[in-house]
Amino acid sequence: MSSLLIAEEESAVAESLADTARYIRNDLNITITKHAKEALKYIKINHYDLFLLGMEFESCTGIELAKKIRETENHKLTPIFFIVSVPVKKFDISGMSCSDIKLLPEREVRKALEVFDGETEKDDDSKNHIVLHHKGHTHVINKDEIIYIESNKGSIFVNTINKKIEIPSYKFTMEKLLTELAEGFIRCHREYIVNTKYVEEFEGTDVVKLKNVDIALPIGRKYKDFFKK
User: Which residue ranges does the record assign to the Response regulatory domain (predicted)?
Assistant: First the structure.
């Protein structure tokens, strides 16, 4: 099993990168930390095949962390990619004995993972996931974990069993999402899509109650005929 270490102060960025990596390669063992010192502790006791590093940490810069990684015997040639949100013109990697060090915008994680075996492997059950991209972040969501989706005030809210994800509605319309979700999801209102797996009960043809959700969702007039069946 290949191992990846992600060291990045912004937890949301790190988790997004990890989700993308898992989606691309389902055999990865991923370690995440927001502290450079903690990353060095992990490196002393584990072997890693790839590093994704942020550019700034509380105790040092990403460049300094990379140089310390290069000082460890097992990682003198391990690929290191830096996570950047904007291009960096000057990049001093003097003292690091590997040309495979690159600046990596988040959207290029797939290219980084190619170092493992020359090609990326998509999870066999990728059809069970939906991938949403927004502001450089990638959200890989298991469809089975989606309870319902809401469209409200210019945003789409994907409510899962673990979290709520917000994306602008101009990027993902409800119609497009319903097409991608396909079987198991129905539209009960122009503002709501529900996962039938979580439907608990109906109150006539007016509202639908879902498991793990405190509020009942309305059933729009346009969709009432479906719920009469």
Answer: 3-117
């979700």: which residue's tokens? 181
* pTM recorded for the entire structure: 0.53
Q: Take residue 180 and report the two structure tokens written for it.
A: 């991608």
Q: pLDDT tier at 123 (50, 70, 90 boundaries)?
A: very low
Same domain, 24 and 109: yes
Q: Tell me which of 32-36, 67-71, 91-95, 154-158 is least confident.
A: 91-95
Residues whose CB is less than 8 angstroms from the CB of residue 186 and which lie 6 or more positions away in sequence, other chains included: 193, 194, 196, 223, 226
Contact between 227 and 187 under an 8 Å Cβ cutoff? The reply is no
Q: What is the CATH number of the domain that holds 149?
A: 2.40.50.1020
Q: Is 222 within the bounds of a domain?
A: yes
Q: What is the pLDDT of residues 40-58, one digit of tens each?
A: 999 999 989 889 988 889 9
Distances in whole angstroms, Cα of residue 166 to Cα of each of 10, 72, 131, 158, 171: 18, 41, 13, 6, 11
Tokens at 114, concatenated: 């190619």
Contact 37, 156 (CB under 8 A): no
The 3-class SS string of 65-102 reads HHHHHHCCHHHCCCCEEEEECCCCCCCCCCCCCCCCEE
Assess whether pLDDT exceeds 50 at residue 127: yes
Domain coverage including residue 195: 142-227
Helix (H) or strand (E) holding 24, with range, is helix 11-24
Q: Are strands 137-142 and 129-134 parallel, antiparallel or unpaired?
A: antiparallel
Per the structure, how many domains does the chain have?
A: 2
Mean pLDDT of the chain: 79
